[in-house]
Amino acid sequence: MTGDVTGKTRGPRRHQPCMTQTEHATDSASIVPAADGYEYADLARLMSLMTGDEKHGPAATSTLDALWVLYDRVLNVDPRQPGADDRDRFLLSKGHGPAAYYAVLAAKGFLDAALLPGFGGFGSPLGYHPDRMLLPGVEISSGSLGHGLPLAAGMALGLRARGLARPRVFTLVGDAELDEGSNHEAIAFAGAAGLDNLHAIVVDNASSTYGWPGGIAGRFGQERWSALTVDGHDHAALERALTVAHPGRPHVVIATVEPKD
Fold first, then answer.
1. Average per-residue pLDDT for the chain
2. CA distance 88 to 103
3. What are the sequence ranges of the domains in the chain?
4. DSSP labels for 147-205?
C-alpha cells in the first residue's frame, strides 16, 4: 500500500508522568509539570532548557511531532516498566539531534525534566547522542547515521524468533540517512522476510543527496513494504498512518517537513 494520509491535528491526550529522582540540582520551579502532566505545548519550553550548538535544533525540531505522536498515541511503553518484554521498541536512528527525544521522554516520565538544563554537561546522562546505558527507555545508543533501521530489522526478527507477537518495533530515520547503503540492505531484507512488526518513520526534509524513481515511498515499495506519505506536522494523519494495518509486510511512514536550509 502506498498513498497519502491527511487530517487535522487534534489535541494530545493528557498524561501523568512518573518522574525519577535525580541528584542534579536545578531551579525546578520553572519546569515542574502541572498536576495533570505535560502537554504537547510544553515541549518547546522543555527543549529550550537545553542549549548549545550541539543541540542540532533544526534536526531536533523536524522530528518533534512524529516523536510526540509515537509516545502519546502509538507506542505501548510504560516508564514504570521500561524493560518489559511485551513493550514496543523505539529506536532513534537520527541520534545526532536528540533534544526533541529528550523533551518527549521527560514529558512522558522516562527521565526527570530537571536533567534537561545539564544537556551535554560533564556527568550528565543527556549526551549529544542518546546512550542506552544511561537512560531508561532508550533502546540503542545512536548518532552515527545508517544504524537504526538495520538494528530495528534485527530486533523485529529476534522478537519473531522468540515467539513474541505483540511487541512492535519502530525506528525514526532522516531522509539523508538513506544515502547510507546499510539502510538499503535492511529495506531489502525486511521486505523479503515479511517483518510486519517493523515500522520505519522517515522524516523527509529534502536533505538527501540521492533520489529514487517514485521517491522514498517508491524505494520502500519496491521491496514489498507498505508505505504512506503524510504531513510530518499533522498529528492525526501521523497517528492514522502509524497504526494502519499492513499484514505480512513491514511499514514505512514518510513524514514530510520543511526543507532543511
1. 84
2. 19
3. 4-8+37-256
4. -HHHHHHHHHHHHHHTT--S--EEEEEEGGGGGSHHHHHHHHHHHHHT-TTEEEEEEE-
pLDDT in tens, 8-27: 333 333 333 333 323 333 33
CA distance 28 to 30: 5
pLDDT digits (tens, 9 = 90+) for 18-75: 333 233 333 333 333 432 479 999 999 999 998 866 555 666 789 999 999 999 999 9
C-alpha cell of residue 1? 500500500
Query: Could you tell me where the DSSP H helices lie in 34-180?
Result: 43-48, 57-61, 64-69, 99-107, 148-161
pLDDT class of 1 with cuts at 50, 70, 90: low
42 near 31, Cβ under 8 Å?
A: no
Burial (Cβ within 10 Å: 0-12, 13-18, ≥19) of residue 30: exposed
Question: Which residue's C-alpha cell is 502532566?
Answer: 37
Using CA atoms of 187, 59, 1, 139 in order, give the dihedral in degrees to the nearest 10.
60
Instruction: Enumerate the β-bridge partners of residue 203.
Output: 174, 255
Q: Model-level pTM? A: 0.83
Q: 111-142, pLDDT tens digit by residue? A: 999 999 988 888 889 877 788 888 888 998 88
- Collapsing DSSP to helix, strand or coil, 222 comes out as coil
Longest dimension (CA), the chain: 53
The CATH-assigned architecture of domain 4-8+37-256 is 3-Layer(aba) Sandwich (3.40)
50: which residues sit within 8 A by CB, 6+ positions away? Answer: 99, 102, 103, 116, 117, 119, 120, 126
SS3 category, 121: coil
